[in-house]
Design brief:
Shape of chain A: globular
Oligomer: homodimer
Number of helices of chain A: 8
Largest sheet of chain A: 7 strands, mixed
Distance between the termini of chain A: 52 Å
Radius of gyration of chain A: 18 Å
Strand order of the largest sheet of chain A: 8-7-6-9-10-12-11
Strand content of chain A: 25-35%
Amino acid sequence: MALYYDEVFEDSVRFGVKVKETLHSEQSEFQKVEVIDTTRFGRMLVIDGIFMTSERDEFFYHEMLVQPAMCTVAEPKSVLIIGGGDGGSAREVLRHAEVERCLMIEIDEAVVRVSKEWLPTIGRAWNDPRLEVRFANGVAFVKESESRAFDVILVDGSDPVGPAEVLFSKEFFEGCRRLLKPGGVLALQSESPIYFRDTFDQTQRRLMDAFEVVRPYFGPVPTYSAGIWSWTFCSDSVDPLKPLDARVEAMTTDSKLYNGDIHRAAFALPNYLRRTTTSG
Amino acid sequence: MALYYDEVFEDSVRFGVKVKETLHSEQSEFQKVEVIDTTRFGRMLVIDGIFMTSERDEFFYHEMLVQPAMCTVAEPKSVLIIGGGDGGSAREVLRHAEVERCLMIEIDEAVVRVSKEWLPTIGRAWNDPRLEVRFANGVAFVKESESRAFDVILVDGSDPVGPAEVLFSKEFFEGCRRLLKPGGVLALQSESPIYFRDTFDQTQRRLMDAFEVVRPYFGPVPTYSAGIWSWTFCSDSVDPLKPLDARVEAMTTDSKLYNGDIHRAAFALPNYLRRTTTSG
């Protein structure tokens, strides 16, 4: 019998999807990793009870994390992804012919293994020779790496509880800044500005301590349920509202969501968020 | 003991809010009208099991239904609201000093009575002398009214099942067109383009048969759960992307959400919707 799998937030709201079948469930070294088959969203990756991504709505998240940065930076040759074990972000990065190298640092090999097996439509670029996947601690990697190595850094982690909490620290953001070439861009998922308002505000403040340009941007992610999700674009100097026309056009052709209008619109700030976000 | 009240969509997804108390419940002539007190969103109006609005997130819906039309039409003196029994849309209309008359045609007196009693922060303009509330059938009203009577018409109905279904018909849209003055604007809620894609597409097509300018626009409504909601701006001639600066500025001051950037950004069309929406 089909049942609902509910993601519960602070015991005040819940979002549930009807499950046809649990395809995989394991307790990895770091977290509980599940794949469920749902009637509405197809297969879904669930980590520690939180919906990560699904076959049907993954593009809302991955295109918006990746394309604003990739379409705006001058030469996206060298890209670092921290997290992103489902492969969706790497796939979006590798759509760009300019990319010479994409290094993914994922802490949990289980996420990659399970995603390769059960979510092949999301991580379609695993065999791209420009992609290198390393199973390592992203924070330690950033701390130990040489400066000015990357044009773009994408932080594709889960909520700031459990293993991903350190991905929202001031030290980590400063490390990312150090690893970026001048004119490079960091983009990260920065939580729901509605349900996770405190985290959102704190993250913006910490980013503003590390970067000259800090601009949150917004879009819907249906399986994230809060109505709106945020990502943040950070740089020493790059204006997120000036994407490169040719690159935007190239990406628009094969994107499900992304185009130049969506890119610019995403940066519009509602009044209720204007107080916390004054940089950039 | 507190329990979750779930809104279920097509037995495939559900969105639940934790309820402290049911404040009111009645079966009116038309529908079941409830007010629940929730831990997350404050008091919520629920009609036939569907979340209509809540104290904490009502501005996401009401500002976006009302302000794009009101800030763009040249002289919004005479405004018609079909539905809108919670009073939030009338409140947004009456913020404009230019309004001389706002007529609300609500089919169900229970919605107004219950909203006045339990949701006074939403319908703050009930005592404004420019507002007239009539309990009547909106479709019949539109059919029988004289032409060219209104500068703005706002359709603030529930989902197109039950009493609100006729508010999505071709005849009704043509009637609205007839009631508008030249240069007037119709704005309506046009459902989730994700969960109600068929309704969204059909509504766009019907509107395009009745109006020269038909532009859907988008925004989050947290208690609507699908990640994104749509409204549609319709006119014989008015460009929704040219709001009047002075009016936008006046509204921005006291809005929780609305400003000129949000106005323009809302009209950005994601690729997955570009096929159906080619007018305007």
